[in-house]
Amino acid sequence: MRVEQISIFLENKAGRLAEVTRILGQGNINIRALSLADTSDFGILRLIVNDHEKAKEILKEHGFTVGRTEVVAVEVEDKPGGLNKILQILFEAHINVEYMYAFVQQSGQNAVLIFRFDDIDAAVDVLRRNGVTVIEGKKLYSM
After folding, report:
1. Helices (DSSP H) in the chain: which residue ranges?
2. Which DSSP string do the residues of 38-74 spell out, in sequence order?
3. pLDDT tens digits, one per residue of 115-127
4. Residue 111: strand pairing partners
5. Cystine design at 82: which of 19, 60, 77, 133 (Cβ 3.0–4.6 Å)?
6. What angle, rounded to 10 degrees, do the helices at 120-129 and 82-92 form?
7. What are the Cα distances from residue 140, in Å, to 37, 63, 74, 87, 126?
8. pTM of this prediction?
């Protein structure tokens, strides 16, 4: 139930993000979801891609610092209150959300959210017990 996410440490200057996407594109890596958090000098680009091992390898070959993190993908009803339903379940179970970002599908009734939890196993367990769909990595990478 865990999804592999790669994190790239980037200097906050013109062209760095374009360089990453160019390298990934040339490597035939498809970006499924992304989040960019920045400060004045540096940023962290978090990506879900169709082939995280290859993406990590080719980015390192080009001198980028790349890490790997396990996250959880959750299907959420794409309507008002859909996100709150998930967050309320997590709050009542005392599970902390470290960060999250959305993944927009081209079709379908639901959105996909990527979560990083302080306790992944407990989060997956409580979400599944409450009828929330947790998406496997293999399925997410091919969406």
Report:
1. 16-26, 52-61, 82-92, 120-129, 137-141
2. E-SSEEEEEEEES-HHHHHHHHHHTT-EEEEEEEEEE
3. 999 999 999 999 9
4. 76
5. 77
6. 120
7. 22, 27, 10, 21, 20
8. 0.86
